[in-house]
Amino acid sequence: MQETIDSRQLLAFCTLVQTGSFTETAHILNLTQSAISHSVKNLELDLRCQLVTRTGRKINITADGEALYKDARHILNQMQGARLRIQDRQNWGRGRLRVGASTTACQHLLPSILREYNECFPDCILTIIPADTPQLLDMTRRHEIDLAIIVTPNELKNIEVKPLFSDELILVASPIHELAQNKRVQMEKIAQERMVLYNKGSLTFDLIEQYFRQSKVQLQNYIELGSMEAIKELVKINYGVSFLASWTVEDEINAGSLVQISTGKRTIIRNWGVCYAKDKKLSINEETFLGLSQAVASTMQSAL
Asked: What is the dihedral of CA 35, 41, 42, 44, to 10 degrees?
């Protein structure tokens, strides 16, 4: 019977691939740099191949190392999943859940989801990480978070997404803005206005920028903010105009503090979903959170 690979050596190697640094790997695993170096060297001796090379301070992964990393990451995830599933059986509802979400989702979606989730698992240690979709996807792939509520991009790698709902970004302005006096505004005119938009690194910003390109005009005069609520306040005082999700400005439009401006037949549609790493086996806690997210989203979608 052949010997199995040492899981501690695999963990050291995988962490080294992810960090690219022996020093950072040692810090993450709470070991000495020498211990990490010996673990990787012993793994190479065991497998009779070179996994990493050094060029100065730079760590390079060999072809054998790349092949091992793909298998090793899956093995370690399976081992972690087995441990969590056993713990779930022994201690129903306890454990941890790490959820990532945009600020919009944190403000408008999570409260309803967490209210129901807390009733199911009152003893679960819950961590919420606010970030934009690109960062959330990277954290999900690295298993730094368990689930993330995201705006779904067109292309995804190593990520599983369960759909939640779709929404439309609409152009809004202050009721005293000159655009508010027009039933419909051409994109050339909108491009001349100051835009107050969500962070440039977000998928929402990318969709708006793509919308302008498809209209053959360029997005030029804009400022970026990391909060939809702050954007709404600037638009209210007539500092600029913005594209915001219809469901996030419904109250303001009904109250008359914001007005919707028609831009024609073309629309900006976002698709929301809950994502997790494709090689991840969901725990009971995670399955429940996913189901509650879909139930809340279904209720909200019917109201849109």
From this structure: 150
Phi, psi of 131 (to 5 degrees): -170, 170
User: How many structural domains compose the chain?
Assistant: 2
Give the CB-side neighbour count of residue 252, counting CA atoms within 13 A: 23
Work out whether strand 147-151 and strand 96-101 pair parallel, antiparallel, or are unpaired: parallel
pLDDT of residue 252: 94
pLDDT digits (tens, 9 = 90+) for 197-227: 988 888 999 999 999 999 888 888 999 988 8
Domain end marker among 69, 89, 109: 89
- φ/ψ (deg, to 5) at 173: -150, 170
Torsion of CA 151, 152, 153, 159, to 10 degrees: 130
The boundaries of the domain holding residue 261 are 91-304
Domain final position from 58, 89, 120: 89
Q: How far is CA 185 from CA 78, 172, 178, 221, in A?
A: 55, 12, 11, 17
